[in-house]
Amino acid sequence: MNQTDSKVQHSGRLWRIIDIISWGANYLEEKGFASSRLIIEILLAHILMCKRIDLYLNYDKPLTKDELAQLKITLKRILNHEPLQYVLSETQFLEHKILLNHRVFIPRPETEILVKQIIEDFKNKMHSPLKILDIGCGSGAISIALAKYFVNSNVLAIDISDEAIRQTEENATVNSIMNITIKKIDIIGSIPEGKYEIIVSNPPYLSIEEYASVEPNLLFEPRESLTDGADGLRFYRRFSEIFPVLLASDGKFYLEIGYNQAEQVAKIFAERKFAIRFIQDFNAIKRIVSN
Fold this sequence. Notes:
alpha/beta, seven-stranded mixed β-sheet, two-stranded antiparallel ribbon, 11 helices, 9 strands
């Protein structure tokens, strides 16, 4: 928002909630943002600390000078292509609130598919004392969702990043998760002790060439959570080597993969004699690989 744009004024006009929604939706649409009305509603609800439905129940309420100032700041961040989840400092993963900042990767809807598949496959063992390993836990979204569902299990969440470890610890506390252990481990150089009924990971799978042409909003996320700095397959090769050691006799692994990696990943695991299957995402793309 700059001096030449139609903008929210702090004085000279009374800006009601409905005025802001109407203006903001048009303004963001002009700037090329999809779902512009949804974005402005979410920002307003965040600033006013209310639900989106409350905006329309109180549509005639004027914003204060401080609230308008906060809106201006958040809109500038959005216009700079900063992801909405970072602007809000949180996101929703399934039914769980996940706190976020630029230290960790933003959980995607595709990763919810991964968790739902695990829950479906192990629904008959909901109360069993499973050992679950989350490799590259990031924000802790996967670990928290699984720990919440498999209440008698223990989830080991590991990451190489100190920032990710701290974020997972914070989110475990916010979500009152007790059956989770969080450790700093570099899975490329070492492996945790024990064997696991469930191993899950959403590793960095963009190739270095793909990363060089990502959309601007992705540049706000940690580089190491998006690319392995090579061909995007480094972690799958490592997993194929260590899973025979880490998996329990009846254990299963679940890995998110890139949209164009199914054939290459299948070959990697076939060389290690794994029989695998793929689960498709919302766009019928092979997104999850499992044994």
